[in-house]
Write a structure and sequence with these properties.
The protein is an all-alpha fold. It is built from 5 helices and no strands.
């Protein structure tokens, strides 16, 4: 048995995850789903996603804002979503929800 079929299956799987992650990224940017929901639900395509990249997919969240947010919580921006502990996931999700509600208040004012 040659390694080619296994290599091709791995490439196909990686491509499926990239496409699913791109769709998830578009939904987050469009407001269809929140980053907090992704952190809590941990869909398969997001488990290997760096938490910093997930945060930057939100509107008005760039590298600096994401880095500051994560450094306040002592979490590396390269840590994968699937590697977060339960405590870290709940903490980040609640803080993101409060950030989102503050942003909505600013838009309404």
């Amino acid at each position: 048995m040659t390694p080619e079929p296994q290599r091709m299956r791995a490439l196909e799987r990686a491509n499926e995850i990239r496409l699913a992650r791109a769709e998830l990224k578009r939904r987050i940017a469009g407001g269809g789903i929140s980053a907090a929901d992704v952190i809590l639900a941990q869909p398969l395509e997001a488990r290997s996603w760096a938490i910093g990249d997930l945060l930057m997919s939100q509107r008005r969240w760039g590298y600096t804002r994401s880095r500051k947010f994560l450094s306040q919580n002592l979490i590396s921006e390269t840590k994968q979503v699937g590697a977060l502990t339960e405590r870290q996931r709940l903490m980040l999700a609640s803080q993101l929800a409060s950030c989102r509600s503050r942003d909505l208040e600013l838009v309404k004012a």
